[in-house]
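Re: weekly structure request thread

Next one in the queue (116 aa):
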Amino acid sequence: MRRTVIFYRTADGKCPIKEFLDSLDGKASQKIVWVLNLLEDLESIPSLYFKKLVSSDGIWECRIKHGSNIYRILCFMFKNSNIVLTHGFIKKTQKTPKNEIEKAEKYKNDFIKRSS
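Done, posted below.
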């Protein structure tokens, strides 16, 4: 089963994930794109790269380490074979910040509402 990665867009056309990727240097973006390709191509994605966040409403995190930075892209599954990327951030703490999870949940609810 092949999955498709989709970039979430707000109602006014902003694309938080694209803005995040555009803010990074070339090498970091390349590594993130490589991991996103794994999401689409691999049948079973290693938890090193992709993990469900326990304390969330169906939010997953795409995990990328590049140099000394740890990048996180939050996302959710939509209609079985789509992974919708909401936004990204550079992780500075052990736990994923609650406000980042809440932002992803808000984007998810908006996406589902506008997709139906």
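The beta strands are 4-7, 50-52, 60-66, 69-78, 82-90. Residues 4-115 form a domain with the YaeB-like fold fold (CATH 3.30.2310.20).
Next request, please.
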